[in-house]
Write a structure and sequence with these properties.
Blueprint (H helix, E strand, L loop, with lengths): L2 E5 L2 E5 L6 E6 L7 H11 L6 E6 L5 H12 L3 E7 L9 H8 L8 E4 L20 E4 L5 E5 L12 H7 L7 E6 L2 H17 L3 H7 L3 E3 L3 E6 L6 H6 L7 E6 L5 H12 L3 E7 L7 H9 L3 E5 L11 E6 L2 E7 L5 H5 L3 E6 L2 H16 L1
Parallel strand pairs: 4-5, 5-6, 12-13, 13-14
Antiparallel strand pairs: 1-2, 3-9, 4-7, 7-8, 8-9, 10-11, 11-17, 12-15, 15-16, 16-17
Helix pairs in contact: 1-2, 2-3
Length: 362
């Protein structure tokens, strides 16, 4: 049986094959630091002559930073692109000090701090480097990307920052690992291009391909001038469809309107959101519920962030999973560096579907 992927308003047909993906989850039901431990193991496995290419937003994990320095010292080519001024401005400072020190990564480290853009009074619109991609050359080429960045520390010595960010060593997160050699190579190339020229306006909007098509999976990158690919994708769903969304941030009025339109077209729309009103305002909840969206806040009793960025979409043509670093916010739509994948891979859908059901039953 063939599957159909709605893509840019067209339909691409393909025959499903063995999955080259593996999905890894973090959460309060997983070992503390499960995803950062996975990254640590991947670093240790790369020998001299190999390469590690990372881009991430928050990086506060000093032991993990030291592992990257150790890898560089043993002859691994380490390329790291890091947000210089995240929302909590000082959050990355200690790790930057380790990585930029005398025995650090030298030219392998690139800090990007993009300037803000004009915005209404009292509102700050600042582009940010929000992607989370981790590439490793050995023991076989692999890349992980999704919602997790190493924003916790060991030991944790700044509870104020942890309170603001949330404890992402127990938060609901996911990294999807690909072993597709072409996909890994292109993701590593993307990181190296960011390292070289990621702050220029030409590169940010026009200099590189904004989408990479692998047949069963399309990778989309932001910022972009073309229409939002997830909005385009969701326009293919209506009566008889089911769309499930896990989201840490839903603040952009336009994105809320698109979800309302989806519900009014007859799709069954369900949302699991972050519990804080800063990330998902109460007016967002009210608008969605009024439109018939099944809406639920998650994690408040455990004080655990819902940091998944996930869509599960089903209709008579098939099933798709959408995942990455993207948020339902104006900066994410228009300004940030972001990544999202739209895939028809049956294994990926099944893993996220299983996780969704675990969350709802827990």
């Amino acid at each position: 049986m063939t599957l159909e992927i709605p893509k840019h308003g067209n339909v691409v047909r393909l025959q499903p094959t063995r999955s080259d993906f593996e999905v890894h989850f973090g959460g309060p039901d997983k070992p503390v630091g499960a995803l950062r431990n996975l990254l640590a193991e991947k670093i240790d496995a790369v020998p001299a002559g190999g390469s590690i290419d990372w881009v991430t937003y928050y990086f506060r994990d000093r032991p993990l930073a030291r592992k990257l320095v150790e890898a560089a010292a043993r002859g691994v080519k380490v390329t790291l692109v890091l947000e210089g001024k995240p929302r909590i401005v000082k959050a990355n400072e200690q790790v930057i000090s380790i990585l930029s020190g005398k025995e650090g990564l030298a030219d392998g480290l690139r800090i990007i701090a993009l300037p803000g853009v004009p915005s209404p009074s009292g509102i700050g619109w600042k582009p940010q480097l929000h992607e989370k991609i981790y590439c490793f050359s050995h023991p076989r080429p692999t890349a992980l990307f999704g919602s997790f960045n190493p924003s916790g520390d060991f030991p944790e010595d700044d509870p104020a920052i942890l309170w603001e960010i949330g404890n992402h060593n127990i938060a609901h997160n996911a990294l999807v690992e690909t072993r597709d050699a072409k996909m890994v190579a292109l993701l590593a190339e993307h990181i190296r291009a960011l390292h070289q020229d990621g702050s220029s306006l030409y590169y940010r909007f026009w200099g590189r391909s904004r989408s990479l098509d692998f047949g069963h999976t399309v990778l989309h990158f932001w910022p972009r001038i073309a229409r939002h690919p997830i909005e385009v994708f969701l326009q293919n769903f209506g009566e008889g469809s089911r769309v499930r969304i896990a989201a840490s941030h839903i603040r952009f009025s336009r994105s809320v309107s698109r979800l309302i339109d989806l519900s009014r077209r007859g799709a069954q729309v369900e949302v699991l959101s972050e519990f804080t009103s800063r990330r998902v305002p109460h007016k967002t909840e009210e608008r969605l519920k009024a439109a018939g969206v099944r809406f639920e806040r998650f994690g408040q009793l455990q004080n655990v962030p819902m940091h998944l960025k996930l869509i599960l979409a089903e209709n008579e043509h098939g099933r798709w999973a959408v995942f990455g670093s993207f948020n339902w916010t104006l900066p994410s739509y228009l300004l940030n560096h972001e990544i999202a994948a739209i895939t028809s891979d049956p294994y990926v859908f099944a893993e996220f579907d299983r996780r969704w059901n675990e969350l709802r039953s827990g």
